[in-house]
């Protein structure tokens, strides 16, 4: 019954919510850790493994999935980010919403390419809400080797702009940590680090603002989407504005597959929306629902950019001013033209830049601090007649500046 479900949800809502991104190189054990950690957190007195991760993973290929688990002291949304380099854009989505992160490093392979790339992406998550899990220690028995791995991890933390000595590092095994009595305490230790992380203060009383992170079925005027509530509250029956589209009305809200009447800041929820203007186009990933008509959609953004050439000798080719780019802004994707500071003709791929502008092909919601992935490649300057963008890959990450 809906009312008892609501009552159940209310019970957990007295605990603060924390979305945590689980990031790291491909096959480092992130998905395995999500399960082990969910078991550890929900195994505490008063803990509940509420839902997930969602099972539609195989159906839609590797993608971001979330699980909701309640511990003794808070509600965690554990966000599993796929590690493959071709899926780096998913990391911008997760990093834009999550206020804490677990970086998974495989004990046998130590720091790898996406370990550093994800770490660069995370900048903005404070040291106090970042923890490194050195996984698969069951397969790398030598303590001397693990000390070396830990040293390399700290060095990478420093390189990526963190105070490497202030970040907690936990050694353990996600695979064995699910049921093996010898390894369970290692996942327990990770759960303890999470429990000690400071709370995030969500602005629950601000006007509602939610970003669409996924769109699903469209049935006539009704569309099912997944959103992350950035601030305020969304309620069933209320109208919200989608810039460039018009008004939508919320018909249903689901949280962890349960119907609820209201969604709160910090939560991922499913919405059934009805578009009020006839003939309207579909809703797009990255668009926002807002209680106010005037929200910050920009067609020029300024970025603080960090190029991966800092670590990869592969990305040494400079990016000329006026290059085509593709930016992932949180969950949104948009084409644009790169405009470096006027004194620079091109951007070196092993640097960090403070004020790179991107002229976007359409207005996109881009609040200050939003995580960005930048794709360029064999990009001819845009003004050349007939020049078409040829995407070659992700070359850097950054954040939106004021
Ligand atoms: N020995 C050992 N193997 C592990 C451990 N954790 C994960 N694995 C194995 O490593 C492989 C990859 O694990 P996943 O959890 O799928 O890794 P992932 O990081 O989610 O991979 P992607 O999503 O592809 O980036 C699987 O075969 C796991 O069984 C561990 O603690 N010890
Ligand atoms: Mg995985």
Structure, explained:
This protein has 402 residues and is an alpha+beta fold. The protein folds into 3 domains: 17-196, Rossmann fold (3-Layer(aba) Sandwich), CATH 3.40.50.300; 209-290, Translation factors (Elongation Factor Tu (Ef-tu), domain 3, Beta Barrel); 298-401, Elongation Factor Tu (Ef-tu), domain 3 (Beta Barrel). Helix content is 20%, strand content 39%. The chain has 7 helices and 24 strands. The protein has helices spanning 2-13, 30-42, 57-60, 88-97, 113-122, 143-159, 184-196; strands at residues 17-24, 48-51, 65-70, 75-80, 100-106, 130-135, 168-171, 209-219, 222-231, 233-235, 239-242, 246-255, 258-260, 262-264, 268-275, 288-290, 297-307, 319-320, 324-329, 332-339, 346-347, 352-365, 371-377, 391-401. It has a 7-stranded mixed sheet with strand order 2-3-4-1-5-6-7, with helices on both faces. The longest helix has 17 residues, at 143-159. The mean pLDDT is 86. Guanosine-5'-triphosphate binds at residues 26-32, 82-84, 135-136, 138-139, 173-176. Magnesium ion binds at residues 30-31, 80, 82.
CATH architecture of the largest domain: 3-Layer(aba) Sandwich
What is the beta-strand fraction? 35-45%
Largest sheet strand order:
2-3-4-1-5-6-7
Which geometry do the CA atoms define?
globular
Give the overall average pLDDT: 86
**Poorly predicted sequence stretches spanning 5 or more consecutive residues:** none
Main sheet specs: 7 strands, mixed
Task: Domain count, please report it.
Answer: 3
As a percent range, the share of helical residues equals: 10-25%
- Rounded to an integer, what's the Rg over CA atoms? 21 Å
* Cofactors and ligands: guanosine-5'-triphosphate, magnesium ion
Give the tally of β-strands.
24
Q: What CATH first level of the largest domain would be assigned? A: Alpha Beta
Distance between the termini: 46 Å
- Class by SSE composition: alpha+beta
Q: Name the CATH superfamily classification of the largest domain.
A: P-loop containing nucleotide triphosphate hydrolases
Number of helices, where a helix is a run of at least 4 consecutive DSSP H or I residues = 7
Stated plainly, the CATH topology of the largest domain is called Rossmann fold
């Amino acid at each position: 019954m809906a009312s008892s479900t609501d009552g159940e949800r209310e019970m957990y809502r007295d605990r603060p919510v924390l979305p945590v991104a689980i990031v790291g190189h491909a096959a480092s054990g992130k998905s395995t850790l999500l399960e082990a950690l969910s078991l550890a957190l929900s195994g505490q007195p008063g803990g509940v493994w509420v839902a997930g991760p969602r099972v539609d993973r195989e159906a839609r290929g590797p993608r971001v999935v979330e699980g909701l688990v309640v511990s003794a002291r808070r509600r965690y949304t554990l966000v599993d980010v796929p590690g493959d380099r071709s899926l780096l854009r998913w990391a911008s989505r997760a990093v834009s919403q999550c206020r804490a992160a677990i970086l998974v490093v495989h004990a046998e392979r130590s720091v790898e390419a996406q370990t550093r790339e994800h770490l660069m992406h995370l900048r903005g998550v404070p040291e106090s809400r970042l923890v490194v899990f050195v996984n698969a220690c069951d397969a790398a028995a030598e303590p001397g080797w693990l000390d070396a791995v830990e040293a390399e991890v700290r060095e990478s933390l420093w390189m990526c702009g963190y105070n490497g000595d202030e970040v907690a590092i936990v050694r353990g095994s996600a695979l064995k940590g699910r049921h093996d009595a010898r390894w369970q305490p290692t996942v327990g230790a990770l759960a303890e680090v999470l429990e000690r992380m400071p709370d995030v203060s969500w602005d629950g009383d601000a006007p509602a603002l939610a970003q669409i992170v996924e769109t699903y079925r469209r049935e006539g005027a009704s569309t099912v989407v997944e959103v992350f509530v950035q601030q305020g509250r969304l309620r069933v029956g209320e109208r919200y504005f989608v810039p460039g589209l018009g008004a939508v009305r919320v018909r249903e809200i689901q949280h962890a597959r349960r119907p609820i009447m209201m969604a709160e800041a910090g939560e991922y929820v499913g919405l059934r929306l009805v578009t009020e203007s006839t003939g309207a186009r579909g809703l797009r990933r990255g668009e926002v629902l807002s209680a106010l008509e005037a929200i910050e959609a920009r067609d020029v953004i300024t970025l603080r950019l960090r190029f991966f050439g800092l670590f990869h000798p592969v990305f040494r080719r400079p990016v000329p001013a006026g290059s085509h780019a593709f930016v992932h802004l949180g969950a949104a994707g948009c084409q644009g033209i790169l405009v470096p500071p006027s004194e620079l003709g091109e951007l070196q791929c092993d640097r960090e830049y403070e004020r790179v502008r991107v002229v976007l092909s359409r207005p996109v919601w881009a609040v200050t601090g939003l995580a960005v992935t930048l794709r360029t490649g064999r990009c001819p300057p845009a003004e050349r007649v007939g020049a078409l963008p040829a995407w070659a890959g992700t070359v850097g990450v950054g954040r939106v500046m004021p």
